[in-house]
Amino acid sequence: MKTSLVILALVAAVCCFSFSLRQKKEYKSFYLSSLSQFKQEEEQLLHTIRYADLSNSTDIKKIKEEIVSSRSRLKGMDFWLRYFDPISYRKLNGPLPVEWETEVFEKFEAPYKRKGAGLSLAEMYLDEETINKDTLSAFIQTSLDSLSMFTRDSVLMQLDTDDHFFLANRLYLLNLAAIYTTGFECPDTARIIPELRMMMHEVKNIYTRFNADFSVTPLSADYLSLYDNAIDFADRQPAAYSAFDQFSFLKDYINPLFRLNQRFIQSYDVISLSYNDYALNNEVTSVFDKSLFISQNTKGIFSLVEDSAVLNEIKRVGKLLFYDPIISGNNKRSCASCHKPTEYFTDTTMATPFQFDEKNHLPRNAPSLINSVFNHLVMLDGKHISLQDQARGVMSSHEEMSSDPDELVKKIMSCKEYRNAFKKFVKYTPEDKNPGMSHIISAITYYYADFSNYYSPFDNAMNNNSAIAADARRGFNLFMSKAQCATCHFVPHFNGIKPPYIGSEFEVLGVPSDTAYTRLSDDKGRYDVNPAEETLHAFRTATVRNAEFTKPYMHNGVFNTLDQVIDFYDVGGGTGKKLIVPNQTLSSDSLKLTRNEKNDLKAFMHSLNENIIFDTPPAGLPVSSDKSLNNRKPGGEY
Description:
The chain is an all-alpha fold. About 45% of the residues lie in helices and about 0% in strands. It contains 22 helices and 4 strands. It has helices at about 1-50, 55-75, 80-85, 85-95, 120-125, 135-145, 155-160, 165-180, 190-215, 220-235, 245-265, 310-325, 335-340, 385-395, 405-415, 415-425, 435-450, 455-465, 470-480, 560-570, 575, 595-605, and strands at about 100, 115, 505-510, 540. The strands form 2 sheets. It has a two-stranded antiparallel sheet with strand order 1-2. Strands 3-4 form a two-stranded antiparallel sheet.
């Protein structure tokens, strides 16, 4: 009897396993069928281009219609393709002809040139005065060639698991929040919302197929109901993206859907096989949780420390060091000299800070240290990959701190309070038992990083349903649409890091050297780090959080008010002001913003002011055994 039961159980298990394999095979077939249909559309498009008369407006119109049809088919597959191979995806629908790789992996390898291709570039090329058929064909042929990447074993293998689904779905939801409604990669703004609607309906089909084939780890009824409501909301909204209620869409639908999907990732023990998930945090439950992605290690050499009492002591010492001019070559300059905590860790008193010589000025302004932890690459030119590298560079720079590292450590250890503290701290750095620059710098970065953990009224509205002013709400909708801010400043940090939050964006804006626009700023920006035609005058896109309090603006501090900044963007950047900027990435067309719209934009940016509790400067500094060092002033002298 027992033998019979065992046999029956084994048979049942085999049947269930076979059924599971059949289900997964059907799900994979669904993906491959969709991919095949897109390939057929592109092949037809390529055929039409090759036999078209590009001087004939009727033929041009037909090509555009087929591009639109192919885009619709592609958007129905974005859910999978963006996740499985984001690099190949840019061959299908790249927003730029040339990009330079600036992902977090630049920490391990040099950036490289990447040429874009695909439907967006083909459509934009059709608007050029002179159209070369070979160039147009190449955009589509390259796209077709890249499709083979999406049928690799490494991709198809993921379709056999439910893990990929929830991770791809997370990326899809993040893109709904940050990309799909902004026009980031859709040349025709009139199609942004229609494409969004179509895509959301297509993803509903993906959801239905997934639940049918992976019934052990399904999307819940609550999730599906909320998604249906999101579709209904999008369908009822105006087709014009400038009239779409981005605020409600994100707050009432996308953010709650993200929260549910994160719970699925946790409860189903989802495992990632993709670098797309390199920086994303599985524990957060809101797009506007500041821990959404991880970009910097604020502890530095103290990474292993978890004891809150020890961390608090490290922070206390870091504060003293932040204000202590002992870190400079002349003992007169501290971190707080240029990054004043009372001014949101920047300096609002001058366009750019003094150099070490106290006569000349540095070429760039002192950016706020608040939220600097949410960048993969540090400095406006992306020169450094960590906060600690940046601090080390500033201290050793002859123009800034002009410190000799060995001498700096010697001076700090001459202070009993510092010496005793670091003797305790090195117990937590087993690979480095002697206090040194890494310990000093890590204490400083851990101190100021703590001020990046505050939230704004806008965050509270998104996370806690708190009330927000009507003009700020209108301003957010403008920010995400007509004003085109969100094509460079992405939620949630409103800086240059977009989903899947593993890369830093650099933009060429055509910033002038003066407000009369007599000439372009001669700062080469990213070019000095990574020389290339596209990187000349490019700068990392900074956050607009706390912008009301972090003047002056732009890399050279040329603008002193937000009104000047908004007017600069509205007119089309440097090119719009008749400066010669051949590689400008900002559109040179006027945004045609009204005065009321500009005021609403400012109201939204003011809603991003974070409710930061600043501490008071130390009353005194640690005493040194070297009496010549004991006249130091907290905060420095200049």
